[in-house]
Amino acid sequence: MLCRAALRSSSARLFSTSAARQTKVAVLGAGGGIGQPLSLLLKSDPLVSSLSLYDIRGAPGVAADVSHVDTASEVTGYPADKIDAALDGVQVVVIPAGVPRKPGMTRDDLFNTNASIVRDLATAVARASPSAHILVISNPVNSTVPIVAAALEKAGVFDPRRLFGITTLDVVRAQRFLAGIVESDPRQTPVTVIGGHSGATIVPLLSQSQYGKGIKGETYDKLVHRIQFGGDEVVKAKDGAGSATLSMAYAGAKFTNLLLRGLNGEKGVITPTFVRSPLYESQGIDFFSSSVELGLQGVEKIHPIGDISPEEEKLLAACLPELKKNIEKGKAFVAPN
Known about the structure:
- The chain is of the alpha/beta class.
- Helices cover 44% and strands 19% of the residues.
- Helix 2 packs across helix 9 (246-263).
- It is globular and about 55 Å long.
- Residues 23-165 form the Lactate/malate dehydrogenase N-terminal domain.
- The active site is at residue 197.
């Protein structure tokens, strides 16, 4: 009984609910290191009424396993040749598919393999579930989100309000790492993280946090570096056995729940996410992560970044050219294809 109570308490902390309709969600890449724990967490989300699990291998087995969890949602697994069936009637599609990082690899090293996977999955979504909201986890997010956008544009179904790059892991890390320094509850230590989802493109706005604004000097530099490159800690610790799968699954489930709450009409659901954005379009950067209000159509409002410190100005100046290169790399991949 204690274990059951602890599990339910943990789920309550991760998920918030609203008295509204439930939603059919698909996970593309459900058999992988992120996909399996993500599927389990989504099975625990009371706003998910039906869970559709797809992968080139293993999804029916994951579905059979997860389906035994004692929550109300129904779970179905689909093999490689049944992607259209997996996407039928789906309102939200989460894409963690792709290869994981290994020691010494950057997110860009993953590009050639994951770019093709994401392009093909986006094409399938455009064909089978064109009005679905698409949540991209597959790295490098700075490039894969523009690839998805281009694939949807080619099919004539791109709606920028319905495409998201999940950068929630950067937020989760920022809150956890900052809380460890100031000895606070991470859940009560919000940090806005803007820019992109790799290395120097990750810009934590510590000056906007009541806990973070007092962090200075070497402590500040080390904290920012850890937020930007925290994934390297996991890759190194797993020693060739993978990357940040469990924390990424947690972050992916957390963002999915926030989106579902917005889609269900809850007001004031605001979180950073990588979307088509006007904030830096004048500099040729048309995708950017900032605080976004989620609503009935997906992206309801894109918030400006607000006042930032001189240190954050420097971080942003380093972010923008790198982010622009990442976005252009994704677009260039799709253009000749």
